[in-house]
From TrEMBL:
Renumbered residue ranges of the record's region Disordered: 1-40
Keywords: Glycosyltransferase, Membrane, Transferase, Transmembrane, Transmembrane helix
PANTHER family, per database record: GALACTOFURANOSYLTRANSFERASE GLFT2 (PTHR43179:SF12), RHAMNOSYLTRANSFERASE WBBL (PTHR43179)
Gene3D superfamilies according to UniProt: Spore Coat Polysaccharide Biosynthesis Protein SpsA, Chain A
Biased composition (Low complexity): 1-25
Lineage: Bacteria, Bacillati, Bacillota, Clostridia, Lachnospirales
Domain Glycosyltransferase 2-like residue range list: 44-213
Basic residues bias locations: 26-36
Annotated pathway: Cell wall biogenesis; cell wall polysaccharide biosynthesis
Name of the protein this chain belongs to: Glycosyltransferase
Amino acid sequence: MSDQNNHQNSDQNNHQNNHQGSHQNSRQHNHPHRRCGREGKKATVVIPNYNGLSFMEPCFKALELQICRDFEVLVVDNGSTDGSVEWLKDQGVASIFLDSNTGFSGAVNRGIRAASTPYVILLNNDTEPDCHYVGEMIKAIERSPRIFSVSSKMIQMYHKELMDDAGDMYSLLGWAFQRGVGRSSAGYNKACRVFSACAGAAIYRRKIFDEIGYFDEMHFAYLEDTDVGYRARIAGYDNIYCPSAVVYHVGSGTSGSKYNSFKVKLAARNNVYLNYKNMPALQLAVNLLPIMAGIAVKYMFFRKIGFAKDYVEGLKEGIATAGTCRKVPYDPRHLRNYFAIEWELLTGTLIYLYEFTARQIAKL
């Protein structure tokens, strides 16, 4: 998702050496060596967890209250040490226990691969979905086989009058952002296309991952959902926003400072990956000036709040290691899609400027 998201309560002291994940060192609880979806369910709710025990019970209670029962739950635990593992075993929750923290990308990839249902719902552990949530998500994605993902209406848990996310957008400046963040939750009631779904609460058509690739584990966390949504757009699939699928999210409401050294550095690095991987050389050349302008503005912002060094280090690491990324090969058959994406980047820039201005005016 955008670099504002905090999918995993990431702890930099545990993560920096685990970017690729650890697929072999895991244990699956309840049904080893069998895929989920045994009873013909339509969706698997995959919940990545890292030391999120305090959130688990309210999240599961909300899932138990779902009117639509056409789903099952799978938790992927990223080596938690806070008692999450014991709680999941005591509750008999179908789980995969990883021996180390593979990040958001590594965890959800394990869950997606373990599922055999047509759809996979990714859900942060610090969320509480409305009782109609699962049903509305399934209904939305079934409207067309060309829909890859559906983003939900994410509302701030402790400020329910405010939006958290109404789908993610991308801009010519190279900025990903949460549409609607900090604005009135009474709005954003119209379904529409978005650049990508926020993976903190989204449904995906599972088989399309086999075509476009899974979440990039080089990202570890931050912008990984924008990246996979970008790849889907290149291939001609749609990402949409469903306002009737409501979920309440703790993240932006109580996470304290939006910025820390680890997050700033990782998001800057991943931003380089995002553009390098998904833009053909010509598109990169066309967008180079606005991307450089975006970098300059962000540098000035981070210098003002004391994170300029981390931001520059992230950019340097991204440039130095971008060549190791799996770049999307250019296919002339997708030329029309690239033009459509360029238009989306332009409109995304205008949406960002409009919402930013509206938030500043509201503060007056």
